[in-house]
C-alpha cells in the first residue's frame, strides 16, 4: 500500500509463518479497525531482498512504511508487538500530516556483517567456518556432567578465548564408546573406560581459536596432563586439575593431533564436512533440528507466558504446539523408562494434575541447546548449581518435580514429537472455481508445506452427495447456495497426511471469510485464491473425528498400509 503501516512476518520455508501471533494480529486489527494497518507474510527463502534473513530460527517482524523499514521486532513477544504496532501506526499518521519519517537499518544484520569475515561461496544449507581456523573435538566426560559442572567448564572454555562451534549432549552406547576408543583397546583398563564413557551423558564440543593459532596444542595445554595427580602438581589451573579425580575420571578429553581431530569430528558430527580452501580447513553443517519441550501443569497454569518468552529469547521457533490433558496410561506410556523409579508417583501426579503444553522446538542443535538451558533435572540442584537455568527460574511450588521436560537425543526427540504430534490424516478439497483457475498453484503450496497427498481424486458432486457431505450445515441460511455451488463443477478431493495435519491444514486455509483472511493471515490460501465466503477456494475438516468420517465418505474403507486405519 502507498500509505499506512505494513507488518511483515518474515518466515523460513521449513517452519512457515509464526502461528502464535495470528490471533494477536486479528485482535489488534479488530480493536483498531484502522485501514492504514496491514499485515503480510514473506518467505525469506524465495525473496532476494530478504536474503540476509534466511536460516534464522527466531521469528522476525518487519515494520514498513512508504516502502522503508521503520522498526524490527524479533521473537513472538505479544506486548512488544502490540506496542510497536500502535507506535508505528501513530508515527505514520504524523508523517501523513507533514512530519519526517524515521527510517532505520536492521542493527542485528549490520552487527553480523561487522563480526563475520567474508566467506567463500557455499551450498544453500551450509554454514562455513571462516578460512584459517583450526579445530579440535573436546568431550566433557560423564563424571563432570553428573556433578553438574558442564556449564561451569563451558564458561571457562569461552573465557580462555576458545570458540565453541558446536555443543551436543549425548550418551554413548557401549558399542559407540568401544568404536571411539578402539585405539586404546589393548590397555588394561579398556573395559572400565568403555563402561565409564557409556555410563551417562557427556558434552561433545567442536573447539576453535583465532585464525593464526593452532587450537590443538592450546587446548591440550588448557586441559592439562591425563593423570589428574600430575595435573594438580604441574598445571593446577588446568581443567583436569580442577575437575578430574583420577586418570580415568579426568573430566575432559581433547584430540591429540589433526588426524585424530578429523576422525573424531566424523564420528560425532557426520553432518559436518571438511573441505580444503587455500590450504586451510573449514567446517560445514546442515542446521535446524527439532526437540520436544513440555511445560508441565503448574508452570503452564502460573507462568506460561514467561516460559514461552524465554523459549523465544533463546532463539527457538515453535513449529507445533498442543495443550493436552494426559491420562495415567498416557503418562505411563510416555515415561515407561521411569515407571520403576522412586520419583515416578510424584511425576504421575504432577503430569495428570492439569493440562501440559507440548512444543516442537526448532533451532540449530535444538536437542542439546534446550537441555543445556533447562539445567539439572533435580530442582534443588538446579537452584544451587545452575540458578540461571530454566528449571531454576521456574521451580514448582507444590511438587518436587521440575516443570520443564526436554528430549535427551535427536532420536528420542522424534519419538516424543510423534507421541504428541502423530501423523494425522485430514480431508481437503479444492472447490470448483479454484480448481479451474488455481489447481497447480494450490497443489504446489500443499506439497511445499510438507503435506503428503496420500489419496487424490477429481469428482463432480451431485445433489445427494453434496447434501450428505455438508449435512452439518443443513438448516443454515447459506446451505442451499453452498450445495448449488459445490455441484456446479468438479472438485479435487484429497487425503493430506502430516504431523498435526488437521490444524496445519486449517491454518494454511485461513479464515472462512477471505476479507478476514487478508487482514489476519495474508499468505493463507483463502486470502490469495478465494472470491467470497461462499467461493472460498478450499475445504478442510474441523477435527480428527470429522476428518475420518469425511475420508470414509469420499474414499470408502481404504487401507493405506498402516498409515490410516479408517476407524
From TrEMBL:
Pfam families: NDK, Thioredoxin
UniProt record similarity statement: Belongs to the NDK family.
Annotated binding of ATP, by residue: 431, 478, 506, 512, 526, 536
Gene3D superfamilies: Glutaredoxin, Nucleoside diphosphate kinase-like domain
Biological processes annotated in GO: CTP biosynthetic process; GTP biosynthetic process; UTP biosynthetic process
Catalytic residues (positions): 253, 405, 539
PANTHER family in the record: NME/NM23 FAMILY MEMBER 8, NME_NM23 FAMILY MEMBER 8
Organism: Leptobrachium leishanense
PROSITE patterns found in the cross-reference section: NDPK_LIKE, THIOREDOXIN_1
CDD domains tied to this protein: NDPk, NDPk_TX, TRX_NDPK
The Nucleoside diphosphate kinase-like domain, residue ranges: 133-276, 288-422, 423-562
Protein's UniProt name: Nucleoside diphosphate kinase-like domain-containing protein
One Gene Ontology MF term: nucleoside diphosphate kinase activity
Amino acid at each position: 500500500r502507498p500509505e499506512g503501516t505494513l507488518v511483515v512476518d518474515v518466515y523460513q520455508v521449513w517452519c512457515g509463518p509464526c502461528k502464535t501471533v495470528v490471533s494477536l494480529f486479528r485482535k489488534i486489527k479488530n480493536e483498531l479497525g484502522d485501514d492504514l494497518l496491514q499485515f503480510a507474510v514473506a518467505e525469506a527463502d524465495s525473496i532476494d531482498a530478504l536474503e540476509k534473513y534466511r536460516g534464522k530460527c527466531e521469528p522476525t517482524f518487519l515494520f514498513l512504511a512508504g516502502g522503508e523499514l521503520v522498526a524490527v521486532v524479533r521473537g513472538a513477544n505479544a506486548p512488544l508487538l502490540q506496542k510497536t504496532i500502535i507506535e508505528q501506526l501513530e508515527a505514520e499518521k504524523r508523517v501523513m500530516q507533514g512530519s519526517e519519517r524515521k527510517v532505520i537499518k536492521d542493527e542485528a544484520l549490520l552487527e553480523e556483517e561487522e563480526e563475520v569475515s567474508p566467506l567463500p561461496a557455499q551450498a544453500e544449507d551450509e554454514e562455513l567456518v571462516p578460512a584459517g581456523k583450526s579445530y579440535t573435538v573436546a568431550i566433557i566426560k560423564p563424571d563432570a556432567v553428573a556433578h553438574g559442572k558442564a556449564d561451569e567448564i563451558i564458561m571457562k572454555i569461552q573465557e580462555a578465548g576458545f570458540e565453541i562451534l558446536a555443543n551436543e549432549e549425548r550418551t554413548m552406547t557401549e558399542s559407540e564408546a568401544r568404536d571411539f576408543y578402539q585405539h586404546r583397546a589393548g590397555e588394561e583398563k579398556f573395559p572400565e573406560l568403555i563402561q565409564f564413557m557409556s555410563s551417562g551423558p557427556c558434552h561433545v564440543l567442536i573447539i576453535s581459536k583465532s585464525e593464526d593459532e593452532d587450537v590443538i596444542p592450546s587446548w591440550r595445554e588448557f586441559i592439562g596432563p591425563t593423570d589428574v595427580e600430575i595435573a594438580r602438581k604441574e598445571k593446577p589451573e588446568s581443567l583436569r586439575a580442577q575437575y578430574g579425580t583420577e586418570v580415568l575420571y579426568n573430566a575432559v578429553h581433547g584430540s591429540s593431533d589433526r588426524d585424530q581431530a578429523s576422525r573424531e569430528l566424523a564420528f560425532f558430527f557426520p553432518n559436518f564436512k571438511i573441505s580444503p580452501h587455500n590450504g586451510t580447513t573449514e567446517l560445514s553443517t546442515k542446521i535446524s533440528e527439532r526437540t520436544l519441550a513440555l511445560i508441565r501443569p503448574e508452570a503452564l497454569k502460573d507462568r506460561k507466558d514467561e516460559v514461552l518468552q524465554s523459549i523465544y529469547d533463546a532463539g527457538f521457533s515453535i513449529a507445533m504446539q498442543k495443550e493436552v490433558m494426559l491420562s495415567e496410561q498416557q503418562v505411563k506410556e510416555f515415561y515407561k523408562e521411569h515407571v520403576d523409579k522412586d520419583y515416578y508417583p510424584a511425576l504421575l501426579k504432577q503430569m495428570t494434575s492439569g493440562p501440559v503444553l507440548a512444543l516442537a522446538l526448532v533451532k540449530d542443535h535444538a536437542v542439546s541447546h534446550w537441555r543445556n538451558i533447562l539445567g539439572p533435572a533435580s530442582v534443588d540442584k538446579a537452584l544451587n548449581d545452575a540458578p540461571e537455568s530454566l528449571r531454576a527460574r521456574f521451580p514448582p511450588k507444590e511438587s518436587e518435580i521440575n516443570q520443564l521436560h526436554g528430549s535427551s537425543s535427536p532420536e528420542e526427540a522424534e519419538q516424543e514429537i510423534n507421541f504428541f504430534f502423530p501423523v494425522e490424516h485430514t480431508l481437503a478439497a479444492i472447490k470448483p472455481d479454484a480448481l479451474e483457475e488455481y489447481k497447480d498453484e494450490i497443489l504446489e503450496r500443499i506439497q511445499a508445506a510438507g503435506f503428503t497427498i496420500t489419496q487424490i481424486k477429481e469428482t463432480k458432486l451431485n445433489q445427494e452427495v453434496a447434501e450428505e457431505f455438508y449435512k452439518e450445515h443443513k438448516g443454515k441460511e447459506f446451505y442451499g447456495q453452498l450445495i448449488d455451488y459445490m455441484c456446479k463443477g468438479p472438485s479435487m478431493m484429497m487425503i493430506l497426511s502430516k504431523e498435526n495435519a488437521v490444524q496445519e491444514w486449517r491454518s494454511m486455509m485461513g479464515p472462512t471469510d477471505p476479507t478476514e483472511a487478508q487482514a489476519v493471515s495474508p499468505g493463507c490460501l483463502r486470502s490469495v485464491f478465494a472470491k467470497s465466503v461462499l467461493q472460498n477456494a478450499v475445504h478442510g475438516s474441523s477435527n480428527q473425528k470429522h476428518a475420518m468420517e469425511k475420508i470414509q465418505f469420499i474414499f470408502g474403507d481404504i487401507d493405506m498400509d498402516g498409515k490410516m486405519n479408517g476407524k
